[in-house]
Amino acid sequence: MGRKQYPPPPEPSAPGPSNQPRDVEEEDKARKIQELQLTVQKLEEELDSLREKLRVSEARVHALQNPHAKRAVNLPDELLRLIFLRAIPPTAFLDTSPSRPYPSPYSHAIATKKAIVLTCAQWARVGTERLYGTIVLMHLGPLIALARTLALRPALGHLVQSIHIRCALFEGHMPLYLRELRAVFATCPRLEHVAHCGLLPHWEVETAAELVARNGADAAVHHGAMLDSLQLLPRGLRRLDIAGGVWLACFEAVAGEFTALEELNIILHTCAPGHQPLHPVRLPHLTALRVSTDRRTLATIEYLALAWHTPALTHLRLDFHTGPRYVDAFLSAPSRSGLKYLHVHACCESIPPDKLPLHFLPGACPALTHLVLSAGAELPETPHPTVRHLDIWTPKFAGPSPPWGPDEDGSATNSAFESQVQIRADAPRAFPALCTVRTLDRTLTDAADWPRLFPPTLLPAGAVEYAFRGFQVRVADDAITRVDVQLDEDEDSGSDYETESDLSDPESDELWSDGEGGKDDLEEIFSGTREVMGVEEVLTIWERTREREEDALQYVTPR
Q: Can you list the positions of beta strands (E) in 377-484?
């Protein structure tokens, strides 16, 4: 409060012989005025102090009279960041493909990230890093919106570390797609991971050796479009996923330029191995490789063994959607001798399971320490001296007998179950230095390499449970299991598991819609979370007043 300014008292005139009594009287009057001014100033200061005390007292009385009133407490950004890390599952746990049933754990994670950013300015400041850390593009529209957002707010581009491209692209949209993708990559200097899964629709594999279009168009159109898309990828990437209609020859044309690449995941389900020339590829810094094949591309494993030179490779995973073959040829290459982690996964079980002899293992992988196998594996007769950890995928049916009863040949036992038992029995003989044996729940998603995410330990660590909305994994010393799903053994629905929180929303991209007809709210999102994570109360208050989702083509940005 401003103080009233009083004029200074007048200077007394010099005393004279005729006006001396009057001067003394004026001097006394001026002194009294000055004293009164000082007294008024002190009283005003005391009044201001009393007003402040009154305001604080009224606030305390109000708080005491309203014990249920909510009081906002601003936590430090560091604590908020830790809470959000616990509330949102890491992207490495999740399958971002649109093939997952909706609502998937990934869709729940996106809803939580958007809710955090829309709560308040502080939460937006901390949560935007999580929202933009990993971006999944399911359609061309969000790609255009992302390019526009990053152009208007370049600082957001520094938050982007991973981009998953899962767009279905029409041939006429390729120029627009390439232009916008180039603009996005130019504004993301910290980008280190790209999942390139774009494809042109209306293409199908009609033979094992040729990819043709349903409308009879030239296959070179598809090849050229995908090659142009791959050539836009930043050359400083550390992790790269290639899938969704990309021929191996397209990647090999640019593979030599990715000199910093450390991890590569390549799905060869649409390759044409019979028509591929042998192009040597050198990836000097590649330490982790994952290759997924089906029946048409099985021979590509042998091709990669001859053409790809990976001297730094230490972690290898091979996913077979058919019987495992050519594993010995791939591992016998000189550049694979430094392997320490080998994961051979039979994704589609058969009865009886396809056999995988591992007699070559001691000579091909002398430094191997961690081995992951599926049913059907036959351990080597010659002991392997360095293997210390063994993980085994559980068969589809845990019991010794399949639910449909005896097989056609009259056998009543599940040979996959017998194979798992046999592997456990032979393990001490085949691996004298063996320290740990774990089982892996086959309902775990294939998107993550779970044994590598949670490596075994020599000292007992007890069980740790990672509980998120729609997703819950328990990691123990003897097993990694997903506890929020049940094996669907009663219905022949084509799905291996069903979630306990299965809802009926059919669209996988509803979270990026305009909000009309949406059914998700924060109470529903957090109702199944076993760990509250310290944010549920505030989010419940916020959701009473929030508006529905904004425009589909706009990414959420802090206000």
A: 377-378, 389-393, 436-440, 464-468, 471-475, 479-482
Asked if the structure places residue 318 within a domain, the reply is yes
- Residue 356 and residue 232 share a domain: no
Nearest CA to 254 out of 222, 238, 280, 230 is that of 230
Structure tokens at 319: 């996913």
CA dihedral sign of residues 356, 301, 350, 392? positive
Position 359 pLDDT exceeds 50: yes
230 and 254 fall within a common domain: yes
Q: Are 68 and 110 in contact (CB under 8 A)?
A: no
Task: Please give the pLDDT value at position 386.
Answer: 94
Residue 93 CA to residue 95 CA, distance in Å, equals: 7
Q: Are 177 and 140 in contact (CB under 8 A)?
A: yes
Do 174 and 244 sit in the same domain of this protein? yes
Q: How far is Cα 212 from Cα 208, in angstroms, rounded to an integer?
A: 11
Would you call the peptide bond into 103 cis, given omega within 30 degrees of 0 as the criterion? yes
Q: Quick one: CA dihedral 443, 446, 451, 453, positive or negative?
A: negative
In DSSP notation, 476-495 reads -SSEEEE-SEEE--S---S-
Domain that includes residue 52, residue range: 1-8+31-65
The reply to whether 249 and 321 lie within a common domain is no
Residue 392 bridge partners (DSSP): 373, 439
Bridge-partner residues for 464, per DSSP? 475
- Say if residue 489 is in the same domain as residue 435: no
Task: Report the b/e string of 202-229 with b at 16+ CB within 10 A.
Answer: ebebeeeeebebeeeeeeeebbebbbeb
Percent of the chain with pLDDT over 90: 23
Q: Which long-range contacts (CB under 8 A, 24 or more apart) does 27-33 make?
A: 33/9
Dist. CA 207–CA 174, nearest whole Å: 26
Long-range contacts at 116-121 (CB < 8 A, ≥ 24 apart): 116/84, 116/87, 116/535, 117/556, 117/558, 118/542, 118/546, 118/556, 119/538, 119/539, 119/542, 121/558, 121/559
Q: What total of structural domains would you count in the chain?
A: 4
Task: Among 409, 442, 475, identify where a domain stops.
Answer: 442
**CA–CA separation, 270 vs 197, rounded Å?**
12
One domain for residues 411 and 345: yes
pLDDT given for residue 542 in this prediction:
43
pLDDT tens readout for residues 404-426: 444 554 343 467 778 888 899 99
Answer whether residue 529 is part of any domain: yes
